[in-house]
């Protein structure tokens, strides 16, 4: 069954506001990753947080991970129109290769 | 100088046909993957190869057969195409060697439509 569940499924905010997306998962992980997908395009890796980390920053992105609650959040600060895309969380489990299990994504729309 | 490339980008075909999708990466990675994204944007792993060896093989019909001629290529052959095979297929690569870098780099996708 699908590992990750994202909340909300869709989010629409004004440019300049912060956007928060949440992800919950069910089983053990080695890491959790966030990807962005623009309409009709491939996925672009944004940030990775390992299971022994609690928070990570990259530019305007902030990711938290709570392994006790099996949840993660992605915060995009000072949103821009170019941030409009679908955002996916993916749990990573290394079994020979890295098996990524994706959530269903959050569709983020930034209104100018 | 595209990192992960897929051909074709679009594929429209009739039910029952056999088709192949090709993937190439020039990142020097040792691991490649195939994912399927359905109409609801749900993305699911299908296969993974590490150094030409099949590592991950999810519950996928045996009509789907991956082939890795070398570390830089992972092709996907689909026999007897069915309507439900219509989806976007993404190839990805990563380097699992020393240091276990977990980031996967995705190709642009192949949009398959079975009529």
Describe this structure in words.
The complex is a heterodimer of chains A (112) and B (115). Chain A has 112 residues and is mainly β. Chain A is built from no helices and eleven strands. In chain A, strands 2, 4, 5, 9, 10 and 11 form a six-stranded mixed beta sheet that branches. A five-stranded antiparallel beta sheet of chain A has the order 1-3-8-7-6, with no helix packed on it. Chain B has 115 residues and is mainly β. Helices cover 0% and strands 55% of the residues of chain B. Chain B contains no helices and eleven strands. Chain B has strands at residues 4-7, 10-13, 19-25, 31-37, 43-50, 53-57, 64-70, 73-78, 87-94, 105-106, 110-114. In chain B, the strands form two sheets. In chain B, strands 2, 4, 5, 6, 9, 10 and 11 form a seven-stranded mixed beta sheet that branches. A four-stranded antiparallel beta sheet of chain B has the order 1-3-8-7, with no helix packed on it. In chain B, a hairpin with a 2-residue loop joins strand 5 and strand 6 (53-57). Chain B starts with a strand and ends with a strand. The model of chain B has no long low-confidence stretch (mean pLDDT 90). At the A-B interface, strand 4, strand 5, strand 9 and strand 10 of A face strand 5, strand 9 and strand 10 of B.
Give a concise summary.
The complex is a heterodimer of chains A (112) and B (115). Chain A is mainly β and 112 residues long. Chain A is 0% helix and 61% strand.
- What's the average pLDDT of chain B? 90
List the chains of the largest interface with their residue counts: A-B, 26 and 27 residues
Major sheet of chain B: size, sense and barrel closure?
7 strands, mixed
Helix content of chain A: under 10%
Instruction: Tell me the quaternary state.
Output: heterodimer
* Through-space gap between termini of chain B: 34 Å
Shape of chain A: globular
Strand content of chain A: over 45%
Order of helices and strands of chain A: EEEEEEEEEEE
Strand content of chain B: over 45%
Identify the overall geometry of chain B.
Answer: globular
Q: How would you state the average pLDDT of chain A, rounded?
A: 91
């Amino acid at each position: 069954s699908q590992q990750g569940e994202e909340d909300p499924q869709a989010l629409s905010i004004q440019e300049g506001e912060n956007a928060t997306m949440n992800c919950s998962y069910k089983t053990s992980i080695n890491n959790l990753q966030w990807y962005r997908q623009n309409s009709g395009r491939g996925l672009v890796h944004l940030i990775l947080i390992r299971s022994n980390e609690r928070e990570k920053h990259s530019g305007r992105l902030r990711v938290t991970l709570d392994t006790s609650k099996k949840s993660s959040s992605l915060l995009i600060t000072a949103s821009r129109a170019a941030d409009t895309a679908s955002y996916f969380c993916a749990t990573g489990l290394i079994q020979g290769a890295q098996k990524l299990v994706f959530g269903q994504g959050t569709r983020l729309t930034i209104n100018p | 100088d595209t990192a992960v490339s897929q051909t074709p980008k679009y594929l429209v075909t009739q039910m029952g046909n056999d088709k192949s999708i090709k993937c190439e990466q020039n990142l020097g990675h040792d691991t490649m993957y195939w994912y399927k994204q359905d109409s609801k944007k749900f993305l699911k792993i299908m296969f993974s190869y590490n150094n030409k060896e099949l590592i991950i093989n999810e519950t996928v019909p045996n009509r789907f057969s991956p082939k890795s001629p070398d570390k830089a290529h992972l092709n996907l052959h689909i026999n007897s195409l069915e309507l439900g095979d219509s989806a976007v297929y993404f190839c990805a690569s990563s380097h699992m060697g020393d240091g276990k870098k977990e980031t996967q780099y995705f190709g642009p996708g192949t949009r398959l439509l079975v009529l």
